[in-house]
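Researcher: Structure prediction, please.
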Amino acid sequence: MRSPSTIEIYKASAGSGKTFSLTMQYLQLALRQPANYRRILAVTFTNKATAEMKERILQVLEGLATGSSHVQQYRQLLLLALAPISAEQLQQQAAAVYSSLLHDYSRFSVSTIDAFVQRIIRSFAWELGIDGGFKLQLNDEPVRQDLANRLYTRLDADKQLQQWLEEMATERLNAGQRWDFRENLKTLASEIFKERFKDFEAVMAELAPDAADKAFQQLHKRLRSSMADIEKKWQQAAEDTLRLIESNGLRTSDFAYGRSSFANYFNKVAADGRPLAI
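Model: Predicted structure follows.
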C-alpha cells in the first residue's frame, strides 16, 4: 500500500481521461477496505464534475459487483493494482463498497471546493461567531449592472453591437414581447456566471474574431430555426388536443376551474403558437 505522504500529480487537458484516472484512484483506495470510503475526500471544481465523478464511481462499482463486461478495463487495472486479489474477491469487495455507499450516501465525499470549504466553516461556526444555519449568497448584481453599463456605453462606437441589439429588439417587438433595454442587457450579462458559459467561452476563445462573429450568427440562425420548429409542433399538438376535446362533445370550459383550467392552455397555444409557462 502506498505511503500516506505520497503525492501524485496528473497534468491533463480536456477530454484526456481525467475522470477515468481519478475514478481509478478512488476505487483503489475504497476497495482495500469496505469502510475506506468514509476516509476519502474527492474535491472538484464544478458541480458538473462532482456529479459526473459520483455517477462514474457508482456505475463502475455496480458493474464490478454484478460481473458486467462494460467495466472490464477497470476490472483488469484494479486486479493489477490490488494484487494478489482475485476476480471473485474483487467482485465481493465491490458489492460491499457499493452497498455501503448507497446506505451511507452522506459519507460519500465527492464535492466542489466551495462546498468543502463551507462544510469546514459550518463545523467551526460557533468559534467564528456565525449562526449555524447561515446561508451563502453570491451577490452578482453589481457586476451585472456594471457589465450592462459597459455594453450600453459601447453602443455608439460599436456598430456591430448596435446592430445586434437592434435585431434582438425587433425580434422581441415582432413577437409581442416587452423590450426593456437595460434589464435585458443585465440578463445577458448574467450568463457569464453560469457553469455552462465556461465551456462556451473556451471554445469561442479559440476562434479568430471574424470566425467568432460568424459562429454567433450561425448559432443564432439555428436557434431561431429550432424555436420556430418547436412552436410549430407545439401549436399542432394544441390544435390536435382541442379537436379531441371537441370530438368528445366537450369544451375547455367543461373542465375543472372553467376558463382557468389546464384545457384552456391549449386555446392560448393554438392562437399564438408559442409554449406558455403554466
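Model: The two ends are 58 Å apart (CA to CA).
Researcher: Thanks, that helps.
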